[in-house]
Amino acid sequence: MRRLAFAVVLLTVGAWAGPQKSPWVEVKTPHFHVFCDGGKGDARNVALQMERMRAVFRQAFPGLRVDPPAPIEVLAVRNGKEMRTVEPAAYLGKGKLTLGGYFQRTPDHDLILLRLSAPGDTHPYRIIYHEYTHLVTSRGEVPLPVWLSEGLAEFYESTEIHGDDVALGKPERFNIELLRQQALIPLPTLFAVDHASPYYNEQDKGTIFYAESWALTHYFMLRQRRRHSQDLVNYLAFLRQGQDPVTAAAHAFGDLAALQKQLQGYVNQLSFVYVHEKLKLKINPKSFTVTPLPVAAADAVRGEFLAWNQRYADASPLLHRVLQQDPGNARALASLGFLAYQQRRLAAAARWYRQAAQRAPGDFLDQYFAGMLLTQHPPLSPAQSAEAAANLQAAIRLNPAFAPTYDELAVLDAEEHQHLHQADHLELEAISLDPANFNYRVNTASILISLDRTQDAIAVLRAALPRATTAAERAECEQRIGQARQFLRAQAEEQKAEAAEQAYLARNESQPGLPGAGGETNSPNVPAAPAPPSDAGPPTLSRRPAGVKQTYIGRIDGVRCNDQPKLSLFSMALALATGGTTVTLHTANYLQVAFAAANFTPHGVLNPCTGLQGLKATVTTVGGEITAIVLSR
């Protein structure tokens, strides 16, 4: 099961068409790549400001990995006219919001679009700092509740940096006036808001939600600095234990009604204070590298931003023009690949990324996408599987900190039913790099079930529950836990029945003439032996399979029900493709087989005679008789 999500970060950008009046330059720092059409001075200033803000977060969140796996790309353009040539289409046209910056985050590629000439007295980096805060705080062990995530983003978006002097938490007059004019949201309601809530998605309710989230976060942040309060630290600890945001708040903050009164008083106070501090991490602008950018290279960067902005009609012709001038431009090739991927033209996307990976063997993202896209057309030939694995392994060597590659390689191994123990280790590495990722834990549980470690899978799924960010994810996780527990119960019943049968047979070994005894057996000419004593268990136990337990992993190529009508109306034969061959497995009664779904939810009631064809399966047999089947896709 693959779970890939993509997002992008953008700032103001210059026009694509025609010659540029100002030379394009690229500035590389340890954590950012800045592309700017405003000259070397502006490009250096943008790079320096971004590195300083990163230092602020390093200081504020010392325990977090604040850096994404790859440097963040920033496209900085001179003015609104240039911005409109690259900003998302949703902001184009009369009456639309005028963007000063745009930040789009992804699991693999973060982009910022920045306008150098912000309108009026607008803070030019406000939106960037807001979204950058989300990027940093998303790398914690558990997802933050929406109120705290937005409250921190609002707190840090007003940050002002002048040299080594930093001002944090400067209050916004708009927020204060709104909170004084409108009734506050009850705190239990505020704490319970999720991404599906009207308070998060509707304009009228969202405005007060953002303002109150800011006020409460500001209250705790300033209290933490003045009194060394551990309220937020304790709150996060309770969340890591799996408590819901409202319960965790009651435990960490105490009486919520009392806190509501304190917050109302905080909002109504005559003046607000904010934080001044010095940057401890020194940044040396002389270490930045500044390189003039040729026209084709600059167009490739702009085309990349357009592709990630979903302005496909503008991106495609620009990127193709780049390739006419520079056929080996890996950025243009990869951007066309991403464009095709977004449009679900997977075969075309795979071709573009394969070319990009060949042109830029040292780019881990090109290697990752080249490998990932090869896996989108199962079943894979041995050659395709080997090529995909080689690309993904190359991506890991180039960037060991990029979690999605470990996950993708683990899924490939699991789907090929090879190296399942290795797949488990790969998923554990992905989780260690991105502890809050819900999907990695779900994938791990599926692999553990294939390894016959269902109890471990349940533990992993229980740990995944606090990482679920939507009601659908929580429901899916709880359903998988239920399926796994049901499978364990079926296994336990099977083992209990086997033990009872073995005990019954052992008791009769000393009684010649009884079925299973060491002496003569009954025949038509010999009177039937007396029935076993009532404590020996039900007679039906003798029909349960006994003998060697075996496990087969493969794909179900065929199913024949009622294949032995004289034996049972519910007999079934299963053709399982495994290890380069096909084996036929049987059950005299498929109603007694324990079925479970490892990574999907069947629609309605599963009919074994018609619903198994083409699915992957882990089949357990005892004495040649099927006892359990774990299905996956």
Question: Overview of this structure, please?
Answer:
The protein is of the alpha+beta class and 633 residues long. Among the domains are: 171-273, no CATH class; 546-633, OB fold (Dihydrolipoamide Acetyltransferase, E2P) (Beta Barrel), CATH 2.40.50. Helices cover 47% and strands 13% of the residues. The chain contains 22 helices and 15 strands. The strands form three sheets. A six-stranded mixed beta sheet has the order 4-5-3-2-1-9, sandwiched between helices. It has a six-stranded mixed beta sheet with strand order 12-11-10-14-15-13. α12 (295-308) packs antiparallel against α13 (312-325) and α13 packs antiparallel against α14. The protein is globular and about 90 Å long. The model is unreliable at 1-22 and 513-546 (pLDDT under 50).
**Percentage of residues assigned to helices:** 40-55%
What structural class do the secondary elements suggest? alpha+beta
The major pleated sheet works out as: 6 strands, mixed
Spans of at least 5 consecutive residues whose pLDDT stays below 50 are 1-22, 513-546
Mean pLDDT: 83
Fraction of residues in β-strands? 5-15%
Kindly report how far apart the N and C termini lie.
Answer: 7 Å
Helical stretch tally: 22
Strand order of the largest sheet: 4-5-3-2-1-9
- Overall morphology: globular
The number of strands is: 15
Cα gyration radius (Å): 31 Å
